[in-house]
């Protein structure tokens, strides 16, 4: 028997003051808000700049802002003024967590840095999302997703082998920084239950970008070879790449010999798995191009989506390459609760599934300086 669902999320009773803007910080606080934290998003009088990052817009608010700011209450506050600083202190008196992404030194200039706040509010968990942290050779400098991708090696391994270094087509560094910030908040809340004390959480785009370099960093550590671009082909596994079919590309992600044998059988060429050139993964890597040629010939008469479904059901990881609209329209997307719809609001649901205290849509993204009605 399934447990009874609770209307209160897993973080019910946790109060978060959100001073962050753009993406990393707001993505973190939306995760917390989705799971029941009371998040108050405080924006400067001019608002979070992503409110204007459109089109498209819903009313006067850009879709970019809407995508990472649901389930939050809203307030506009000028923290450069003494009155704004005083009001923030009053709000922090009852808060558990402060999330901000000011350039290091800015809050300190206003008398709102961690050293000051921790004296007044010893239980407060202060999470700062920044580009590089406050010290070190790059300390205090502003950070941006694409620049972090370039600086930390992500672009160097992304793109076709004979092409230019390419940015990942979504703000992966900002988003993984937001995820790590949310994890850090949860860790600190858990530790505070024992110690009774808050702490400072120092989460940077630079660190998070470097943390994404798998398997390229370990490959470099143990081979001494600088990783290079390989398109969609995996540096350690074959076949693990996109291949053409009669109706478009299919991605094959064959991770072991059993899967390769099943692939060969499904394509009507079981002898391929017995070919010594392809007997083991190391052999397939050494003969990647001839394997690609053989598979491309076999795939030429197949339709990508139907074949991918058949392969997946046979235990061979495979997927047709879908567009964003196709992925959102897939019936499994709705089945998993990954579409949120309320009036004019459309959003991607939380991927964090808890059986008894699930995430839910409680509030629509806040209007600048005000509140939105609770979601129905």
Describe the secondary-structure layout.
Layout: E1 15-18, H1 24-34, E2 38-43, E3 57-58, E4 61-62, H2 63-66, E5 72-76, H3 82-92, E6 97-100, H4 106-109, H5 114-120, E7 125-130, H6 145-151, H7 172-195, E8 200-204, H8 205-211, H9 216-223, E9 240-245, E10 248-253, H10 257-266, H11 281-286, H12 288-299, H13 304-313, E11 318-320, H14 324-329, H15 331-335, E12 339-342, E13 345-348
Parallel strand pairs: 1-2, 1-6, 2-5, 6-7, 7-8
Antiparallel strand pairs: 3-4, 9-10, 10-11, 12-13
Task: Explain how this protein is built.
This protein is an alpha/beta fold. The protein is built from 15 helices and 13 strands. The strands form four sheets. A six-stranded parallel β-sheet has the order 5-2-1-6-7-8. Strands 9-10-11 form a three-stranded antiparallel β-sheet, covered by helices on one side. It has a two-stranded antiparallel sheet with strand order 3-4. β9 and β10 form a beta hairpin. α1 packs across α7 and α7 (172-195) packs across α8 (205-211). The protein is elongated. The model has no long low-confidence stretch (mean pLDDT 94).
Order of helices and strands: EHEEEHEHEHHEHHEHHEEHHHHEHHEE
How far apart the termini lie comes to: 27 Å
Task: Please report the number of helical segments.
Answer: 15
Major beta-sheet overview = 6 strands, parallel
Low-confidence stretches: none
Give the fraction of residues assigned to helices: 25-40%
Query: Outline, from the CA principal axes?
Result: elongated
Percentage of β-strand residues? 15-25%
* Average pLDDT reading: 94
Structural class: alpha/beta
What's the count of strands? 13
Radius of gyration, Cα only, in angstroms?
24 Å
Query: What assembly state would you assign to the polypeptide chains in this entry?
Result: single chain
């Amino acid at each position: 028997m399934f447990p009874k669902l609770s209307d209160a999320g897993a973080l019910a009773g946790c109060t978060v003051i959100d001073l962050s803007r753009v993406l990393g910080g707001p993505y973190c606080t939306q995760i917390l808000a989705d799971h029941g934290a009371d998040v108050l998003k405080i924006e400067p009088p001019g608002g979070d700049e992503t409110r204007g990052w459109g089109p498209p817009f819903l009313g006067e608010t850009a879709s970019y802002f809407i995508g990472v700011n649901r389930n939050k209450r809203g307030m506009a506050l000028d923290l450069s003024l003494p009155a704004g600083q005083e009001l923030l202190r009053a709000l922090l008196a009852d808060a558990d967590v402060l999330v901000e992404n000011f350039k290091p030194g800015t809050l300190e200039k206003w008398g709102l840095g961690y050293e000051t706040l921790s004296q007044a509010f010893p239980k407060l968990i202060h999470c700062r999302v920044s580009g590089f942290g406050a010290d070190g050779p790059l300390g205090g400098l502003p950070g941006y997703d694409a620049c972090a991708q370039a600086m930390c090696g992500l672009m160097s391994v992304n793109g076709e082998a004979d092409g230019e270094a390419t940015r990942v087509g979504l703000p992966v560094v900002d988003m993984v920084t937001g995820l790590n910030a949310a994890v850090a908040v949860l860790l600190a809340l858990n530790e505070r239950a024992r110690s009774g004390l808050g702490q400072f959480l120092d989460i940077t785009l630079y660190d998070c970008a470097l943390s994404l370099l798998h398997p390229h960093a370990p490959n470099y550590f143990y081979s001494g070879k600088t990783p290079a671009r390989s398109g969609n082909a995996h540096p350690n596994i074959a076949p693990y790449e996109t291949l053409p079919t009669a109706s478009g590309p299919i991605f094959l992600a064959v991770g072991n010999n059993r899967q390769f044998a099943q692939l060969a059988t499904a394509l009507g060429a079981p002898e391929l798995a017995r070919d010594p050139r392809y007997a083991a993964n190391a052999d397939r890597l050494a003969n990647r191009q001839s394997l690609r040629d053989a598979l491309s010939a076999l795939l030429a008469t197949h339709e990508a989506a139907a074949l991918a479904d058949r392969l997946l059901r046979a235990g061979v990881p495979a997927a047709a390459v879908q567009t964003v609209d196709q992925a959102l329209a897939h019936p499994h997307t709705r089945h998993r609760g990954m579409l949120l719809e309320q009036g004019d609001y459309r959003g991607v649901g939380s991927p964090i599934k808890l059986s008894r205290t699930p995430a839910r849509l409680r509030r629509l993204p806040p209007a600048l300086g005000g509140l939105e009605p609770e979601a129905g």
